[in-house]
Every structure is written in C-alpha cells, then in structure tokens.
C-alpha cells in the first residue's frame, strides 16, 4: 500500500471515529494537517466515493464474517434443517480424492 493510500485510509478512519461524514474535502484537510504532501486529490475522491453512505465501523466489525448479514440466516437455516450438508461434503471430498489419484499417472516433472 502506498503512502497516499495509507494516509487517506487513516484520515477516513479518523473521520469515521468522530462520526463525521467522509468527503474528499475533509479527507484532504486531515491529510494536509498531518503535513503529508504527496497525496494526490484522486485518492481522497476515490475513498470518499467508495465509503459514501457506508458505516465504516460496521465494515471493520464485519471483516471476517464472509458474506455479511444476509448470509448468516441462510447458513444457519441450512445447518438446522438436517444432516444433509455433511453427507454432501463427504461425497465431494471422496470425488476430489478420486480425481487427484487419476491425475497422478507416475510421471514426474523431470521424467
């Protein structure tokens, strides 16, 4: 990550932490206040557009959740519906093992 991206990211986090709307002008103001001179205005514009209408704190809290809130009920419903999912996974694993063994025909990289 370049210094420009890093400085803009930190400025966006500061604004989000203070509960201030993230705009290109506010990002640029924070970056100038930190005496960082090599950030082109395109970075602040890109970050402002990407984060427009988004809750940055919520994004940070849900980094490892996968598909977000919509995927949680679906995954929970599938797991609670019965024992079909583990059987399908085992079946797929066996098929993959078969395919792998078929691919190995005794030829090495340097044969």
Describe the structure.
With 111 residues, the protein is an all-alpha fold. The protein has two domains: 3-61, Arc Repressor Mutant, subunit A (Orthogonal Bundle), CATH 1.10.10.1410; 71-102. The protein contains six helices and no strands. The protein has helices at residues 3-18, 24-33, 41-51, 56-61, 71-81, 84-103. α1 packs across α2. The longest helix is centred in the C-terminal third of the chain and has 20 residues, at 84-103.
Task: Please sum up the structure shown.
The chain is mostly helical and 111 residues long. It has six helices and no strands. α2 packs across α3.
Set out the fold topology.
Layout: H1 3-18, H2 24-33, H3 41-51, H4 56-61, H5 71-81, H6 84-103
Helix pairs in contact: 1-2, 1-3, 2-3
Query: In total, how many beta strands?
Result: 0
Question: Gyration radius, to the nearest Å?
Answer: 24 Å
Q: Based on Cα principal axes, name the global outline.
A: elongated
| CATH domain fold name of the largest domain | Arc Repressor Mutant, subunit A
Q: Name the helix and strand elements from N-terminus to C-terminus, one letter apiece.
A: HHHHHH
Class by alpha and beta content:
mainly alpha
- State the end-to-end distance: 42 Å
Function: Plays an important role in the elongation step of protein synthesis.
Family: Belongs to the eukaryotic ribosomal protein P1/P2 family.
Organism: Tothia fuscella
Subunit structure: P1 and P2 exist as dimers at the large ribosomal subunit.
């Amino acid at each position: 990550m370049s210094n420009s991206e890093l400085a803009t990211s930190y400025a966006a986090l500061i604004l989000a932490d203070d509960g201030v709307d993230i705009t290109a002008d506010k990002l640029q103001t924070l970056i100038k206040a930190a005496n960082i001179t090599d950030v082109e205005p395109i970075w602040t514009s890109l970050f402002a557009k990407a984060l427009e209408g988004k809750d940055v704190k919520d994004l940070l809290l849900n980094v490892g959740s996968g598909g977000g809130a919509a995927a949680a009920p679906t995954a929970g419903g599938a797991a609670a519906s019965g024992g079909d999912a583990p059987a399908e996974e085992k079946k797929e694993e066996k098929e993959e093992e078969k395919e792998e063994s078929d691919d190995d025909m005794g030829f090495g990289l340097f044969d």
